[in-house]
Amino acid sequence: MSSVNVQLTVRGDVPESSAEYARDKFRHLVSRRADRVDLVHVVLAVAANPAHEAPASVAAEADVGGARVHAHATAAVLTEAVDEAVDRLRRRLTDLSERPRSRRHTGLAKAAAGDQDDEESEEPDHE
Question: How far from 112 is each of 69, 99, 105, 107, 121, CA to CA, in Å?
Answer without folding.
Answer: 31, 21, 10, 9, 14
